[in-house]
């Protein structure tokens, strides 16, 4: 179970770190993120910037918490992912054309693939929390921990670049 927790921690933590980092990579990146939120029409104009800051801070909190092994990171991730899934579902239902700034500039608009990715991340966050609760303090072998971390990094990369991978293999 401990190795599963390490994989989950790396997947969720790295995914949220990249997501937060892409939104604060410069003033233009953050401005584009705020603009994307405006396009969704899910948040009032008066609170767009504070909401954007809160989203980025929450994503950073997930990454930092999981980097230091604090399981609260899984809970924050689960909450954020629930909100993201709900928001994307509303946008898909309304057929609102929004290009997500989830991991930097995007060519594709939000859709079912983003719902699937966030659903998978939600399950991984839940599995990580469960693994931590069941076996969180068990000792692990260094080689096994490294292998679990590398696996987590690979899975995170696949999830982060999922839209690009689908575009390459489908078109």
TrEMBL record:
Source organism superkingdom: Bacteria
Keyword Membrane part of the UniProt annotation: yes
Subcellular location: Membrane
Ranges for domain Methylamine utilisation protein MauE: 1-130
Keyword terms: Membrane, Transmembrane, Transmembrane helix
Segments passing through the bilayer: 46-68, 74-94, 115-134, 140-162
Keyword Amino-acid biosynthesis: no
GO annotation, biological process: methylamine metabolic process
Subcellular location, principal: membrane
Membrane-protein topology: Multi-pass membrane protein
One CC-aspect GO term: membrane
Protein name: Methylamine utilization protein MauE
């Amino acid at each position: 179970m401990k190795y599963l927790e390490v994989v989950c921690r790396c997947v969720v933590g790295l995914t949220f770190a990249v997501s937060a980092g892409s939104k604060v990579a410069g003033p233009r990146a953050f401005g584009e993120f705020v603009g994307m939120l405006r396009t969704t029409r899910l948040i009032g104009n008066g609170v767009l910037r504070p909401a954007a800051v809160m989203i980025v801070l929450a994503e950073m909190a997930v990454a930092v918490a999981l980097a230091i092994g604090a399981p609260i990171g899984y809970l924050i991730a689960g909450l954020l992912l629930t909100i993201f899934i709900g928001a994307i579902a509303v946008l898909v239902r309304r057929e609102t054309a929004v290009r997500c700034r989830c991991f930097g500039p995007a060519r594709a608009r939000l859709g079912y693939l983003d719902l699937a990715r966030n659903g998978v991340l939600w399950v991984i966050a839940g599995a990580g929390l469960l693994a931590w609760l069941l076996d969180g303090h068990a000792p692990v072998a260094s080689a096994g921990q490294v292998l679990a971390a590398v696996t987590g990094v690979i899975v995170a990369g696949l999830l982060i670049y999922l839209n690009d991978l689908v575009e390459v293999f489908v078109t």
